[in-house]
TrEMBL record:
One of its GO terms (biological process) is DNA-mediated transformation. InterPro entries: DprA, DprA_WH, DrpA_SLOG, WH-like_DNA-bd_sf. Residues 86-295 form the Smf/DprA SLOG domain. The lineage of its organism: Bacteria, Pseudomonadati, Pseudomonadota, Betaproteobacteria, Burkholderiales. Residues 355-412 form the DprA winged helix domain. This is DNA-protecting protein DprA. It comes from Paraburkholderia antibiotica. Belongs to the DprA/Smf family. It comes from the Bacteria.
Length: 420
């Protein structure tokens, strides 16, 4: 198993493909299937590329890289020299197998920490950034018990439920994976800088974005699809009606993953998104054991006294004042826990982009809204009215849902969001 392309030329080819504007993942997979490694793709005649993947893909491949490409390549190579940093490509045996079942797996993954956690049983815990104290407590408890059962907890490093899920995951042998919406060398939000560093030591931080990519709102739905792709199931702890975690759940459902939701008070705004998902078919769960049972994950027997386990957990998650790490929590005889990784390199802080006035909708979005009208409409009808391809239709609906322009109704129908 290797985690670094063999040569600068090979890495450069993968990086160029990952940065090619307009090259869709499905087209990239066709090209790789036809011509093998990326460097072979760039030696093909334009006619051959068009025949395999179409004119748009051929144009994307043949477009010369930007003037700063060599600088980007040097930055990746320098980043890889730092302890714990890895790049995994789509043809690498180390590539997470769960992502290969997605229609659009990223050609490159930047990883800090334990690569083995991307090959384990995993469950995502997601929810509101503005979580209630009860929601934070529930998220950490679910994550802690899932991790104690040997299940890796995946989340998005956001404030609120995500942070609580990561902290709970760190308490058990299953560990935690943070899928982020910035470059792997940055941390957003800044409040989670220490948590991200701890995850990079004991778990894994994963990004598909080029190094140096700042926090942008448009990146996070794409981040959410990776969270959904890595796991067997998604648990929603708290979510408002327009929460991004509902998009994660919807993407997970489209990929054939199980979706679970914790119920709450009918008067609580952060329960309404969970209740909506339950109405649409998500499984109502009240305990971590229900999630384990539904997914067919057996609980691990207790290997030590509860008091001893708590002492070891405290030792394992502590960092001394110099920033060095202490021994990882490991279960004797566990085959799923890899040897302790090398210390990882520090992160820089991601400075969020300065908020700007809401931009006008793209022409495709305007066309879709016009086709939608003001009555509930199915995907099939929208596809007929707009003549949009499935991928473009789904992507545009996601953008409109995130922007608060469209509401998803029970039964998979859509309608314009009502304005107060």
């Amino acid at each position: 198993m290797h985690t670094l392309p063999a040569t600068r030329i090979e890495l450069a080819a993968w990086l160029r493909l990952s940065l090619a504007p307009g090259l869709k993942p499905a087209a990239l997979r066709l090209l790789l299937g036809a011509f093998g490694l990326p460097e072979s793709i760039f030696t093909q005649a334009p006619e051959a590329l068009v025949e395999v993947a179409g004119e748009a893909a051929a144009r994307a491949v043949l477009t010369p890289p930007g003037a700063d490409f060599e600088g980007q390549l040097d930055a990746v190579l320098a980043w890889l020299e730092l302890p714990g940093n890895q790049v995994v490509t789509l043809d690498d045996p180390a590539y997470p197998p769960a992502l290969l079942t997605m229609p659009d797996p990223p050609p490159l993954l930047y990883i800090k920490g334990r690569l083995d956690l991307l090959h384990t049983r995993a469950v995502a815990l997601v929810g509101s950034r503005s979580a209630t104290p009860q929601g934070l407590e529930d998220a950490q408890r679910f994550a802690r018990e899932l991790s104690a059962a040997g299940v890796t907890v995946v989340s998005g490093l956001a404030l609120g439920i995500d942070g609580a899920a990561h902290r709970g995951g760190l308490e058990g042998i299953g560990g935690t994976v943070a899928v982020i919406g910035t470059g792997a060398d940055l941390v957003y939000p800044a409040a989670h800088h220490a948590l991200a560093r701890q995850i990079a030591v004991q778990g894994a931080v994963v990004s598909e974005w080029p190094l140096g990519t700042p926090a942008r709102a448009a990146n996070f739905p794409q981040r959410n699809r990776l969270i959904a792709g890595l796991v067997s199931g998604v648990v929603i702890v708290e979510a408002a009606m327009r929460s991004g975690s509902l998009i994660t759940a919807r993407l997970a459902n489209e990929m054939g993953r199980d979706v679970f939701a914790l119920p709450g008070s009918i008067h609580a705004p952060l329960s309404r998104g969970c209740h909506r998902m339950i109405k649409q078919g998500a499984r109502l769960v009240e305990t971590p054991d229900e999630v384990l049972e539904e997914l067919g994950f057996a609980k691990r027997p207790a290997m030590r006294s509860e008091r001893a386990a708590k002492r070891e957990v405290k030792r394992s998650v502590a960092l001394d004042v110099t920033g060095s790490r202490l021994p990882l929590l490991r279960e004797p005889g566990s085959a799923s826990v890899a040897a302790p990784p090398q210390p990882t390199a520090p992160f820089a802080e991601a400075v969020p982009c300065v908020p700007r006035p809401k931009p006008p909708l793209a022409p495709e979005a305007e066309r879709l809204l016009a086709a939608l009208g003001h009555a509930p409409t199915s995907l099939e009808i929208l596809a007929t009215r707009t003549e949009m391809e499935d991928a473009a239709l789904h992507a545009t609906l996601l953008q409109l849902e995130l922007a608060g322009e469209v509401t998803l109704l029970p039964g998979g129908r859509f309608m314009r969001a009502h304005r107060a």
